[in-house]
């Protein structure tokens, strides 16, 4: 270990792939100088299942369930992105009611994803209680979504041309009750976490990401908005029923960990607003487009469809050759770009700060590995 | 009972009965505290905690202890054997010895030494040695990290602790714990030394490695810190020592600030235990509410905030006493 | 309009094609075709206009590859796709890296190398990203899996 006469300046520490704080199967190779990090290199691929290869061997409908397994925390956004991409290729129009249903369910899913993030993140920082409060709230969302979609986590509810089921009265009243409940819970989170001196000291001025870095690394989502850039696909490239809803995009100022945390908290409130408005405006009508072919054979060409998932921009790039199976599907996932900034941001930080920074980027490893 | 009283009168008899009393107390205390921690944490987290084994899970700890005793003692190959074996013992022994001077009531003190409080403070620092032994001998980077952090933390927080205790000693004029309790006959010291109480509680939380100062055991960063490589009964010793340490520091706080065993109607021992467990509940409340303080912030807090405050408290106490 | 500024910036690079895209059908505002050796210059032009690299991938057309770059902008909605065709040479296809312009392209290019075998000249760290480092196959090639037991 230490030889007499030779001073060892740095040593290598390996975090993961099994580690309580790496949120999945991620390995981070750290070179340390005492407690300070001189180099951090993420090693990914432990969860590579070959989704893009699977896409080339399945028909478009058969590939639908795969999308829920890519990002299991916000599966409905991926479901929506893929459905919209294929609908663009085929030229299907989704009826109004289905669009609103898609928005309502996606926003609920976004809130549940953010709740998981808050719980897990605070657990990394040493606060053992907020995760149970967050998961308690999440259970209510999961019950609501379970009634409608039949799943609790890896949803596959939307189909090409609409949705596979409809909302009922019980869902609507349950949703409205939940919105009131969560709003009062936000006050608890604020006093327990946001105003906690220890939490603020752990997160203020830590892991600052500048705007230039954000552009060069192609960051999206709350990781980007914490640095003050108001880019949200729901506003910049509106799709589905979002133009009918009035909501704001919370942004941070400094781009530190605290700003990214605050952005997510405020986003949950905005999601509640969207759900409320969508429920108020829910039109009657069919939930599926008519004349959706049973064997989907989109015309030759390519399409890129972007949607805003809880972690950032999910882009679905499909190349079709007029066959029932896609020729190439590329899943552009937000965590891929967001994690690639870690080597630059982690330098000259303590290991405790690395945990804080890694958590604030909100990566889901299965979507990076696909 | 008469036999017991005569034995109690002799010094040797006191010692033997005292040691049996300590062993029993430590065991029952650990059993009770572990159950209490699980129940308190559960209710704070909107859940129930152990409910199956015994009424409201009261026998759960016994079941866990039996399980731990049955576990294989795995010794990793590259450890420094003698040090590795000694560490759990060294962490536990000083804690036991401190019990000799704790006044449970007017007559239930095993040896009322005239350097009582000094003995407690001196022996408490020996746990640092044990943590260092554990972390170093484990031959594991994570354990070494945990040990280094804990040494820095304990040393840093020892100083304001000592100075705070000094302020109280100044008021009493004696190191004897029974004198300190007696001096609080008319009013408890917490009323005249609130700052000292807050400082003491903060330093005690850091000394016992409890949240928000539990960096040496930070699960999410270092897996398990200095006791990463310990399994089974050896791990249980560290665990036991932590809970017993909590009891000790709460007992000292009760003696110094809350009037020891004094209180109306109920016998002294009951009052004493009530106060001690109230303070332990406070410590548990901290653990389940706050996130963890980062290491450099921890050390900064000790050296730049607590030590000046403790000194200020000491000076003010001295001034007030002089002017009286 | 960002689209016009981009067209002007790209005009000087003498690219094979710079035309408007059919946004409703494809999601692109601007479609560009370039040679792989022109990519660093194209990337620099995009960065100068404030665009970010949305995605970088490849498509295997059996006789050739196409590298597909997607650019977008935070300030204004304008998605640009750049197709760069690569012939498959016997030694292995190679294209210049754009990671000096966009550090975020580092991982995307590693992924393309990992899954297709396309090398990027000048890349600081061209190792496999998703597959184990000692793997000897490229799974997204169209002739991968043609033998039984390989799928």
Rg of chain A, rounded, reads: 21 Å
In round numbers, the mean pLDDT of chain B is: 82
Helix content of chain A: 40-55%
In spatial order, strands of the major sheet of chain A run: 1-2-3
Number of strands of chain A: 8
3D structure, described in words:
The complex is a heterotrimer of chains A (370), B (324) and C (151). In chain A, helix 2 (64-70) runs antiparallel to helix 3 (75-90), helix 4 (96-125) packs antiparallel against helix 5 (130-149) and helix 4 packs antiparallel against helix 11 (257-281). Chain A has one domain (11-369): Cytochrome-c3 Hydrogenase, chain B, CATH 1.10.645. Chain A is globular, with a radius of gyration of 21 Å. In chain A, 55% of the residues are buried. Chain A is α+β, with helices and mostly antiparallel strands and 370 residues long. Chain A has helices at residues 51-56, 64-70, 75-90, 96-125, 130-149, 169-194, 197-203, 211-217, 222-225, 233-236, 257-281, 334-339, 342-346, 351-361, 365-369, and strands spanning 11-15, 27-33, 36-43, 158-159, 162-163, 301-309, 312-320, 328-332. In chain A, a hairpin with a 2-residue loop joins strand 4 (158-159) and strand 5 (162-163). Chain A contains 15 helices and eight strands. In chain A, strands 1-2-3 form a three-stranded antiparallel sheet. Chain A has a three-stranded antiparallel sheet with strand order 6-7-8. Chain B is globular. The model of chain B has no long low-confidence stretch (mean pLDDT 82). Chain B has 324 residues and is an all-alpha fold. The N and C termini of chain B lie far apart (47 Å). With 151 residues, chain C is an alpha/beta fold. Chain C has a domain at 2-92: NADH:ubiquinone oxidoreductase Nqo5 subunit (Beta Polymerase, domain 2, 2-Layer Sandwich), CATH 3.30.460. Chain C is built from four helices and seven strands, in the order αβαβαββββαβ. In chain C, the strands form two sheets. A five-stranded mixed sheet of chain C has the order 1-2-5-4-3, covered by helices on one side. In chain C, strand 3 and strand 4 (64-73) form a beta hairpin. The longest helix of chain C is centred in the last third of the chain and has 12 residues, at 105-116. Classes of the chains: A alpha+beta (370), B mainly alpha (324), C alpha/beta (151). Chains in contact: A-B, A-C. Chain A binds chain C through residues 44-45, 48, 50, 52-53, 56-57, 88, 91, 214-219, 224, 229, 231, 236-237, 301-306, 313, 315, 317, 319, 327-328, 330, 332, 336-337, 340-341, 344, 369-370, and chain C through 24-28, 47, 50-55, 57, 59-60, 68, 70, 72, 74, 77, 79, 81, 102-104, 106-108, 115, 128-132, 139-140, 145, 151.
């Amino acid at each position: 270990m230490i030889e007499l006469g030779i001073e060892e300046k740095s040593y290598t520490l390996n975090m993961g792939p099994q580690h309580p704080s790496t949120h999945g199967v991620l390995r981070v190779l750290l070179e340390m100088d005492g407690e300070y990090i001189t180099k951090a290199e993420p090693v990914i691929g432990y969860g590579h299942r070959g989704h893009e290869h699977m896409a080339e061997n399945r028909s478009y409908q058969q590939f639908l369930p795969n999308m829920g397994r890519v990002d299991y925390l916000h599966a409905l956004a991926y479901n929506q992105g893929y459905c919209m991409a294929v609908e663009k290729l085929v030229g299907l129009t989704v009826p109004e009611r289905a669009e609103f249903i898609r928005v309502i369910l996606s926003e609920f899913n976004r809130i549940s994803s953010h709740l998981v993030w808050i719980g897990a993140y605070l657990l990394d920082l040493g606060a053992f209680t907020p995760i149970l409060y967050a998961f308690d709230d999440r259970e209510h969302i999961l019950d609501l979504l379970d009634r409608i979609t039949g799943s609790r986590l890896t949803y596959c509810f939307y189909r090409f041309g609409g949705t596979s089921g409809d909302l009922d009265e019980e869902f609507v009243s349950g949703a409205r009750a939940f919105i009131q409940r969560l709003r009062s819970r936000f006050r608890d989170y604020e006093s327990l976490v946001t105003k906690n001196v220890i939490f603020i000291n752990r997160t203020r001025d830590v892991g600052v990401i500048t705007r230039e870095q954000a552009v060069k690394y192609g960051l999206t989502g709350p990781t980007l908005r914490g640095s003050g850039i108001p880019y949200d696909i729901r506003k910049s490239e509106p799709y589905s029923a979002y133009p009918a809803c009035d909501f704001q995009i919370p942004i941070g100022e400094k781009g530190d960990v605290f700003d990214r945390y605050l952005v997510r908290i405020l986003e949950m409130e905005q999601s509640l607003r969207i759900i409320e408005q969508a429920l108020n405006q829910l039109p009657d009508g069919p939930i599926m487009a008519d004349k959706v072919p049973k064997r989907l054979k989109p015309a030759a060409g390519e399409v890129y469809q972007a949607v805003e998932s809880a972690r950032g921009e999910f882009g679905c790039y499909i190349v079709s050759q007029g066959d029932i199976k896609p020729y190439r599907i590329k899943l552009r996932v937000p965590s891929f770009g967001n994690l690639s900034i870690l080597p630059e941001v982690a330098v000259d930080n303590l290991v405790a700060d690395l945990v804080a920074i890694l958590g604030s980027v909100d990566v889901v490893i299965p979507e990076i590995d696909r | 009972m008469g036999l017991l009283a005569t034995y109690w009168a002799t010094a040797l008899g006191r010692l033997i009965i005292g040691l049996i009393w300590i062993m029993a107390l430590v065991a029952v205390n650990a059993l009770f505290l572990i159950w209490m921690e699980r129940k308190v944490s559960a209710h704070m987290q909107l859940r129930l905690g152990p409910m199956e084994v015994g009424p409201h899970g009261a026998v759960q700890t016994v079941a866990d202890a039996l399980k731990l005793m049955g576990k294989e003692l795995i010794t990793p190959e590259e450890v420094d054997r003698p040090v590795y074996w000694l560490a759990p013992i060294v962490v536990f022994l000083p804690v036991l010895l401190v019990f000799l001077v704790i006044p449970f009531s007017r007559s239930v003190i095993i040896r009322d030494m005239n350097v009582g409080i000094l003995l407690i403070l001196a022996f408490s620092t020996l746990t640092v040695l044990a943590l260092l032994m554990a972390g170093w001998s484990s031959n594991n980077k994570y354990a070494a990290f945990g040990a280094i952090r804990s040494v820095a933390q304990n040393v840093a927080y020892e100083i304001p602790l000592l100075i705070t205790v000094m302020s109280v000693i100044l008021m009493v004029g004696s190191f004897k714990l029974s004198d300190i309790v007696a001096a609080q006959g008319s009013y408890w010291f917490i009323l005249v030394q609130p700052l000292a109480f807050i400082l003491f509680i903060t330093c005690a939380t850091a000394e016992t490695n409890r949240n928000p100062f539990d960096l040496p055991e930070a699960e999410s960063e270092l897996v398990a810190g200095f006791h990463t490589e310990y399994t089974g009964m050896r791990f249980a010793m560290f665990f036991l020592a932590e809970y017993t340490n909590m009891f000790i520091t709460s007992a000292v706080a009760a003696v110094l600030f809350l009037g020891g065993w004094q209180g109306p109607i109920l016998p002294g021992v009951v009052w004493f235990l009530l106060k001690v467990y109230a303070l332990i509940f406070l410590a548990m409340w901290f653990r389940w509410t706050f996130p963890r303080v980062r290491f450099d912030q921890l050390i900064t807090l000790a050296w730049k905030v607590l030590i000046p405050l403790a000194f200020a408290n000491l000076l003010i106490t001295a001034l007030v006493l002089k002017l009286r | 309009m960002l689209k016009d500024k981009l067209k002007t910036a790209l005009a000087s690079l003498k690219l094979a094609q710079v035309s408007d895209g059919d946004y409703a059908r494809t999601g692109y505002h601007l479609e560009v075709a370039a040679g792989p050796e022109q990519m660093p210059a194209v990337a620099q032009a995009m960065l100068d206009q404030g665009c970010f690299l949305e995605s970088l991938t490849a498509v295997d057309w059996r006789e050739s590859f196409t590298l597909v770059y997607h650019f977008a902008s935070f300030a204004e909605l304008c998605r640009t796709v750049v197709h760069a065709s690569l012939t498959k040479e016997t030694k292995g296809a190679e294209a210049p890296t754009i990671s000096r312009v966009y550090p975020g392209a580092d991982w995307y290019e590693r992924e393309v190398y990992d899954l297709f075998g396309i090398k990027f000249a000048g890349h600081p760290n061209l190792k496999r990203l998703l597959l184990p480092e000692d793997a000897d196959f490229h799974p997204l090639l169209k002739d991968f899996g043609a033998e039984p037991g390989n799928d």
